[in-house]
Design goal:
The longest helix is centred in the last third of the chain and has 34 residues. By secondary structure, the protein is an all-alpha fold. α2 packs parallel to α12, α5 packs antiparallel against α6 and α9 packs across α10. The protein starts with 12 loop residues before the first helix and ends with a helix. A hairpin with a 2-residue loop joins β1 and β2. It has a two-stranded antiparallel ribbon. It has one domain.
Length: 358
């Protein structure tokens, strides 16, 4: 397939500046939310901050490299990236190879979560696949998604499976698929999701507590109740940076999946709204890039990266305010996690390269 586009002098500087601001705020938030547990577990209150700073530097190197690679080159290697991701998702499940933490086998011995790479790989592959019209691909699309989501659910990682599903379905819709297929896919997907929740006791407990916060307040509903206490304590202006009380081992995963609860407690509704506005602006810049580039692959790739980041933000924040059950999805560029930050910044690098074309 021949991809046509013409270069323009500058990349999207507002997009890069927005990412830098969010990432720096993420460092502040990680220190504020983790200093207590880091002191207790490692004897160094800066432990998580220094680790995230290391990954932030590596991530910006990856961003620069991906920015320098013409985005069209990703088209020809998209299948290889997908195959590598599937291979890593498979080997992480092998006993003695994958590392199990808190009952989930998601990590490789040398560090990193293959499921994070799978998000970017899927965006690139589907963008290449969907950049040209093709009839009768629903079956192949379902097989691919089923294989990828199945491997992720075996870890188990329901949150990432939801993100993968959203990315795939939205890109499939943007490719011009007939609407009747969505009328079929959405209820079937919802039914399968309910079955997966029903057969896993810990998922069913999350659903039960989502529907009734007063059930098992010291057990299954403890997490969400502590998050809501943190949100309520912040009020309109917050209690001040570094002054969170819920970070003292009350909110579980305070520096990872639940970090927004600590942020909202410290900077309140006003500060939280500004952070959300930055994410909205980031999504706007990404979709503006997608609307400007002329060739189908660049348009799908820019849209896919923007949708991937926006999906994670929406699901994480929705779970924090109890609009959806807790899913364990990290807040992009904010939550502690090296692999997530590295892959996200690589995706931003690709997006910045696309912004140089029209």
């Amino acid at each position: 397939m021949k991809l046509k586009s013409s270069a323009i002098p500058n990349f999207d500087k507002p997009l890069l500046l927005t990412v830098i601001i969010i990432a720096i705020f993420g460092l502040v938030s990680i220190y504020n939310s983790s200093s207590v547990t880091a002191s207790y577990d490692f004897g160094n209150k800066y432990f998580f901050l220094f680790e995230q700073m290391k990954w932030l530097v590596i991530g910006f190197v990856a961003l620069f490299i991906c920015y320098k690679i013409p985005y069209k080159k990703w088209y020809s290697i998209s299948i290889y990236l997908l195959l590598i991701s599937l291979f890593l998702l498979f080997i992480v499940l092998i006993p003695g190879v994958g590392v199990a933490v808190k009952g989930a086998q998601r990590w490789l011995p040398f560090g990193g979560q293959p499921s994070e790479l799978a998000k970017l790989s899927l965006v690139i592959y589907l963008s290449a696949w969907f950049s040209h019209k093709e009839k009768g691909r629903l079956g192949a699309f379902l097989i691919l998604c089923g294989l990828l989501i199945g491997l992720i659910l075996l870890q188990p990682d329901m949150g990432t499976a939801v993100i993968i599903s959203l990315i795939a379905i939205i890109l499939y819709f943007l490719s011009g698929a007939p609407l009747w297929q969505f009328g079929l896919l959405l209820p079937v997907g919802a039914f399968l999701g309910y079955i997966l929740i029903k057969i896993a006791p810990y998922r069913f407990a999350r659903l039960t507590t989502f529907l009734n916060f007063n059930s098992d307040p010291l057990g299954a509903s403890y997490h969400i109740r502590q998050i809501l206490i943190a949100l309520g304590s912040g009020g309109f202006w917050g209690i001040g940076l570094g002054n969170s009380r819920q970070k003292y081992a009350y909110v579980p995963e305070a520096n990872t999946d639940s970090i927004f609860a600590i942020i909202a407690e410290e900077i309140g509704f006003t500060g939280s709204a500004l952070l959300i506005a930055l994410f909205v602006y980031l999504f706007y810049r990404g979709m503006k890039i997608a609307s400007r580039v002329s060739d189908p692959f660049g348009k799908m790739l820019a849209s896919g990266i923007s949708i991937w980041i926006a999906s994670q933000v929406v699901i994480n924040l929705s779970s924090m305010v109890a609009l959806v059950p807790l899913t364990g999805v990290p807040l992009p560029f904010i939550s502690y996690g090296g692999t997530s930050l590295l892959v996200l910044l690589a995706g931003i690098g690709i997006l910045l390269n696309i912004s140089k074309y029209k």
